[in-house]
Amino acid sequence: MINAPFARECQSFLQRICCSLGLKTLYLSMRWSDLSNGYDQPKPRTWDMASVRQIEANRRNATRSTGPKSAGGKTRSSQNALRHGLARSAIGDPAETANFAVAIASGLGHGVTPASALALARSKLALLRLRRLRQDMLAGLLADPIPAGLKRLKALERYERYALAQQRRALRSLGTTEG
Question: Which residues are CB-neighbours of 63 under 8 A, at least 6 positions away?
Fold first, then answer.
């Protein structure tokens, strides 16, 4: 069904055409309901859906692109988004961390659990790595001061706050208040 304002506009348009053509009446072969067929209802969006051929082609392509197969390729692709490695949970050499944890436990002497000594060792090593990286970045900025270098330097604060929070938790679990 056609809406009333649209019907009036169409009727006035047709009357103007008839007058301009010098006709008294204009005979149409269609009725108003035929003119309005489909205008009131939204058309189905067929372009959003993939055809059966497209779905089959997508499946065939997916079987060919499954990522690297060799160990070397997997190792290379695992480093694709690596920038500095500070967000990884296990940074550095596990043997170095274990040796440092043993040194912490023996230095503190009183009932230190291996888990709390290991947590403290991880946080201390993370802080050392961050400070070393900051020194390198500052030396690079002295040689070539660029705004992007300052932005990267500021981004280190996030990782340092996280490492300091880990250190506080580890010290709390030891029962000491040393910093």
Answer: none
